[in-house]
Write a structure and sequence with these properties.
By secondary structure, this protein is α/β, with parallel strands linked by helices. It has 18 helices and 15 strands. 45% of the residues lie in helices and 18% in strands. The structure holds adenosine-5'-triphosphate and magnesium ion.
Length: 490
């Protein structure tokens, strides 16, 4: 997946990222608004050994504790630390407190035994335990406890009570005997302060997190959508799956519904140009076996058979060819509507012997273009289209026209199109951009092969402007998936 392709995907599906961003940011805002604020009160304590009356040098642990206090920024003043150091230097210092002891004190601080002394019920003990974090600052004699609570005053009081009870508990526990003083003293070096700002929720962090997840989901869904999209998007893909040339690329035009025929726009539009290009490309396929009777079909309904066959018939007639267009879609005939002709008799009437072939054919427009409408919708279209009568009609028409075009039903639903193609020189398969599935093209090709019918080429219809770039003249280019596609000839 190259960068250009990724950018194209992003340009096509940017709305997925936008939707994800809107959902992500909205969720972050809703979560933030619905999260009750929590306040944190922090207290810092120092464990001090009091046991040995022998004067000793200041320990490394003590030095680190002082350094930590000085850099904490929350401490008592610098003078207080210096005073504490001086006091320690003058007074006899004790045996160093081990890191194991410090860790034990940290655990003691969040123990049920201690917390049970400041709150009453079991539930409250558990809540406080969940809302307390204790840290024995490594290589120091400092302990830091943070209590969070929905009420800032209660958070501060809890932290305060915790330190007081903790000092008493350590004092009790560290007495060698009941009548001797404790070997460790707990000093509060940084009193808890009334928290002004809640520590959670954090709106900016939440929104940033929401944006990050949204980007991840948005981009992920673009990639997933691309991977799951099994429709035809390039003429290369169509060519590869059908194993035949893409003879034309017709752009999507919202006016097709209103004006299906190119002749109405005086033949100057991009669509008219695309059909002329298709006409030109048709002449280049297999010079020795130039098709004179061609079935226009597709995999499934509504992929553009009627509009392609009608406009190709016009383009051929405009080039001076004697053309007949047969409405061979006896299930959903549209040719009469497209050309705006009144149907007196049609193909079915000729096939059942109710009308003469010549009388059913109508000349249309100023060119040598003739139309054989479908006639009445019969109950047995497949039977009629595969009948010897149909074969006879085709033989006759091929003699009198340069090109016999048949607008047929889709290949995958019914056998009509394959049957018709077997009686003609070949079929042209119309695939609709973003609708016709890759496996359908393979199955359509198989349906034709199963009756030894020839697929002369394909047309990629309704290609959106963003996926195609039409040059002037007869060259058409389709640019998707980072590839350039050039029709058989130009
Ligand atoms: N290039 C195009 N751009 C925009 N719309 C198109 C294009 N080609 C066809 N359509 C529209 O698609 C619909 C189906 O087109 P069309 O009748 O040609 O298909 P079909 O394969 O013959 O359908 P059916 O299976 O019913 O016979 C029509 O509404 C038509 O206007
Ligand atoms: Mg049709």
């Amino acid at each position: 997946m190259d960068l250009l392709y990724c950018l194209r995907l992003l340009r096509r599906d940017w709305w997925l990222v936008l939707i994800s961003l809107v959902i992500g940011v909205t969720s972050a805002v809703i979560i933030t608004a619905n999260t009750p604020p929590k306040y944190a009160a922090t207290i810092t304590m120092m464990a001090k050994s009091t046991e040995q009356p022998v004067s000793q040098p200041i320990t490394q642990q003590q030095m680190k504790s002082y350094a930590n206090l000085l850099s904490s920024g929350r401490l008592i003043s610098q003078a207080a630390v210096i005073a504490m150091m001086a006091k320690n230097m003058q007074q006899p210092v004790s045996q160093p407190i081990t890191q194991q002891q410090m860790k034990s004190y940290a655990n003691l601080l969040s123990s049920g035994r201690l917390i049970g002394q400041i709150v009453a019920t079991e539930g409250e003990i558990r809540t406080v335990q969940q809302n307390i974090t204790v840290q024995a600052i490594p290589d120091t004699l400092l302990l830091r406890a943070t209590v969070t609570d929905g009420d800032p005053v209660r958070a501060m009081r809890l932290a305060d009570a915790l330190s007081t009870r903790f000092a008493v508990l350590v004092d009790e526990m560290e007495r060698p005997t009941a009548d001797r003083p404790s070997s460790v003293k707990i000093l509060v070096v940084d009193q808890p302060r009334m928290p002004n700002e809640p520590v959670s929720p954090r709106p900016l962090v939440n929104v940033a997190f929401g944006v990050l997840i949204a980007l991840f989901v948005g981009v992920g869904s673009i990639i997933l959508r691309d991977r799951l999209d099994t429709t035809i998007k390039t003429s290369e893909m169509l060519q590869h799956l059908s194993q035949s040339h893409t003879l034309g690329i017709i752009g999507f035009d919202k006016d097709v519904e209103r004006r299906p025929l190119i002749v109405r726009d005086k033949g100057s539009s991009l669509r008219a140009e695309a059909y002329r290009s298709l006409r030109a490309n048709l002449q280049f396929i297999d010079i020795d076996r130039q098709p004179k009777s061609l079935v226009v079909t597709s995999c499934l309904p509504r992929e553009g058979k009627s509009s392609t066959s009608s406009n190709l018939a016009i383009a051929l007639a405009q080039a001076g060819k004697r053309v007949i267009l047969i409405d061979g879609n006896l299930r959903r005939p549209r040719i009469s509507d497209y050309f705006g002709i009144e149907t007196v008799a049609g193909l079915t009437d000729v096939l059942i012997g109710k009308a003469e072939l010549r009388s059913a054919i109508q000349r249309w427009g100023e060119f040598d273009l003739h139309i054989l409408p479908s006639g009445q919708i019969p109950p047995n279209p497949s039977e009629l289209l595969g009948s010897p009568g149909m074969e006879q009609i085709l033989k006759e028409l091929v003699k009198s026209y340069d090109m016999v075009l048949i607008d047929a039903p889709p290949l995958l639903n019914v056998t009509d199109a394959a049957t018709l193609t077997a009686a003609c020189d070949g079929a042209m398969l119309v695939a609709r951009y973003g609708k016709t599935r890759q496996d359908h093209v393979i199955r359509a090709k198989e349906a034709l092969s199963s009756v030894d019918a020839r697929l002369v080429g394909t047309v990629l219809n309704a290609v959106p402007a963003r996926a195609s770039r039409y040059g002037h003249g007869q060259k058409a280019e389709l640019k998707t998936k980072g590839e350039l596609t050039t029709p058989v000839s130009g």
